[in-house]
């Protein structure tokens, strides 16, 4: 490892980014584990379609609250401290969800897990943005999305293996418990690793400066950037902060106009549109969706793994592109690509045949739908998946970063809740064609939103952000 006095230590930067992004893995795993457990939940708790939606979407209530509280709490007690709390919430939720004896207990357990997911979703990217040099910040921040998708794919693989071993999600595994319960309990392993790894990384130097712990901040920055650069950076951080008060939600209001700052609306819009395009329908209901149009449970779970794998490859491509072509061009490419591919999926569902009350796709149409759905996943993970989180972590000025993340994260998870909980009822009511048509329309509108309101942040220091 390069000595601090001689210059920056890329190895140390990569180490702490790797630990922080385990939060992204947990975000993905906790979100994806529900995909494949619906049969078990319906059988154990006697759920209706609305009940299934509420049990699946319960985590999102906790996510919204966790995201809102985490941004503010991180300004009070630190980024790393809140991430440690999130890790403990992951462990508690996994144990309780797998052991749930009623729908109400399960929902409560998932809300607890959601608090951790919401916290990790906003704090991992902001922590990464605060400890990485501007020149490589986009690439390293994008690793967060790779880890989210890796977590999702890890959950899909674990669910597939457990269901395959037991002969189905309702099959009995170890100690007489069905496979779907073990799908939740398996999460304890990565959650425990996350907690222990967090103990090895430092607090964000920008938080330390805000708290007046400049000597400690300088020590962290010296290991990150080198000793001489650390002294300059501490001064820049100090100068960028408003000295007369601590960060608070009212900072989101422009004092001159009395209105919410435009940068806040841009953050909320990015967060909401990321969900309105329907990506989490693929992640939460993928198995149910593909079974509903004629695929077996085993094939549907394998399709989930395929979607997760292509997502990882798309995110890896983003790592090489985001600091070269910028954030805004990637968002525009993603919006256009998602609008087209979602429209194709909706078109395929529109010509599906109704057999014994269930939609059935022909072999040819099923292939087109599957290819279009995976192209949609690629476009999302090349753009809106990683770029939205990168931008939320870096677009707000230092003084309002915690508050801006709080309201944007809250909006993101509320939109996620609305889309996810409504899907089973919409699919059964207005049908898959209209439902996916709405997602396609949202992707189309998002293109013009980005053109009008989103400003490029590539290569800019966090201390230079204005809004």
Point out poorly predicted stretches: 1-6
> What is the terminal-to-terminal distance?
38 Å
**Sheet having the most strands:** 2 strands, antiparallel
CATH architecture heading: Up-down Bundle
CATH fold-type name = Growth Hormone, Chain: A
The pLDDT mean sits at 78
Provide the CATH superfamily: MFS general substrate transporter like domains
Topology:
Elements lengths: L9 H11 L1 H11 L5 H8 L3 H29 L1 H21 L3 H29 L2 H33 L12 H7 L2 H11 L6 H6 L3 H12 L1 H14 L21 H15 L2 H14 L4 H29 L1 H24 L2 E3 L2 E3 L2 H20 L1 H11 L6 H29 L2 H22 L14
Antiparallel strand pairs: 1-2
Helix pairs in contact: 1-6, 1-7, 2-6, 2-7, 4-5, 4-6, 4-19, 5-6, 5-8, 5-9, 6-7, 6-18, 6-19, 7-8, 7-15, 7-18, 11-12, 13-18, 13-19, 13-20, 14-15, 15-16, 15-17, 16-17, 16-18, 16-20, 17-18, 19-20
Write up this protein:
The chain has 467 residues and is mainly α. It has a single domain (9-201, 242-464), classed as Growth Hormone, Chain: A. It is built from 20 helices and 2 strands. It has helices at 10-20, 22-32, 38-45, 49-77, 79-99, 103-131, 134-166, 179-185, 188-198, 205-210, 214-225, 227-240, 262-276, 279-292, 297-325, 327-350, 363-382, 384-394, 401-429, 432-453, and strands at 353-355, 358-360. Strand 1 and strand 2 (358-360) form a beta hairpin. Helix 1 packs antiparallel against helix 6 (103-131), helix 1 crosses helix 7 and helix 7 packs antiparallel against helix 15. Mean pLDDT is 78; it is low at 1-6.
Please name the defining characteristics of this protein.
467 residues; mainly alpha; Growth Hormone, Chain: A
